Amino acid sequence: DEVEFRYEAAVCGGIPIIRSLQSDFVGDEITMMSGIINGCTNFMLTAMDRDGKSYEEALAEASELGYAEADPTLDVGGFDARSKLRILMRLAFGVEVDEDVISCRGITELTKVDFEYAKMLGGTIKLLGVTKRVSEGKVTAFVSPCYVTADDSLSSVNDATNAVEVISNNLISSTYIGQGAGRYPTANSCINDVIALAKNDQTPLPFNPGSDDEMVGNFESVFYLRLKYKDMLGITRQCGEVCEKHGVSIHSILQNPVTKRDDAAFAIITEKVELNAIKAVCEDIQGLEWCAEDVFYMPVLREDWVSGLTN
């Protein structure tokens, strides 16, 4: 027997993003989706940005208020967001992949200095699930902290609130914002599904038709790199040489005044480049004598991010 399957509360709690993707883009073509789809991590990043708290302090507050589980790994590691992104990717592009194929980097490596440099650039940092068409027949997806400019629609989404932006050919940009967790928002979506079933409300298939699009892990973006270093001569020169070796062009270098020589870090903003090139740059730099720890990197969400500095 045929049965209807509804699962609105599975992604973003009370936000009707699944119903919208099933029904509202039938005559449109989605090219990109980016979303804040985990309330715990967004609460923590808001505390780190707005209140200047450390990662540990933000996690303690999230746990105290019930946003974080006793074991917060699924949230802070980005795995909860990855599970939700897989569903959104299937709805948007018809691509079915195993979760492990989707690149997943959580917020555990973020530090106060990253938010200081983000503010210097005029923006902030959000943990985002992103999926987009990179070329004809190829789609990518990843979960990662991302730099977003202050004028971006996702920049002002704070605390435990969720948001998903859908970019498409006809509607251009549609943003869904609301409560992504909690008893009442989640129950609201569940009850709506039950009532719709009771009314025999016919909807499209649970998942949009599949496609032959290929999932690829490599994509192009502007990137932010944070490098912790031991004070030595020639650091900037060596960074330039490594970047040149891998075809990475540097847009700018940021460095706050050094107050603790054993905890000094500077940041590099690249031009648009492939992720694989960034990984190669990080690997080479980590082998240099002055590099004090693994290089942290994250994508810049928009290609036109520089315009956000002057808006």
N- to C-terminal distance: 57 Å
Order of helices and strands: HEHHHHEHEEEEHEEHEEEHE
Principal-axes shape call: globular
pLDDT < 50 stretches:
none
- By DSSP (H or I, 4+ residues per run), the number of helices equals 9
Helix fraction, binned, reads 25-40%
Given helix and strand content, the structural type is: alpha+beta
Secondary structure: number of strands: 12
| Largest sheet descriptor | 7 strands, mixed
Beta-strand percentage range: 25-35%
What does this molecule look like?
The protein is an alpha+beta fold and 311 residues long. 31% of the residues lie in helices and 26% in strands. The protein has 9 helices and 12 strands. It has helices spanning 17-23, 39-50, 55-64, 73-76, 79-93, 112-121, 183-198, 235-245, 275-286, and strands at 30-36, 103-104, 123-135, 138-149, 161-168, 172-179, 214-215, 220-229, 250-255, 264-270, 273-274, 296-300. Strands 1, 2, 3, 4, 5, 6 and 7 form a 7-stranded mixed sheet that branches. Strands 8, 9, 10, 11 and 12 form a 5-stranded antiparallel sheet that branches. Strand 9 and strand 10 form a beta hairpin. Helix 2 packs across helix 3 (55-64). The protein is globular, with a radius of gyration of 20 Å. The termini are far apart. The model has no long low-confidence stretch (mean pLDDT 91).
Compact summary:
The chain has helices at residues 17-23, 39-50, 55-64, 73-76, 79-93, 112-121, 183-198, 235-245, 275-286; strands spanning 30-36, 103-104, 123-135, 138-149, 161-168, 172-179, 214-215, 220-229, 250-255, 264-270, 273-274, 296-300. By secondary structure, the chain is an alpha+beta fold.
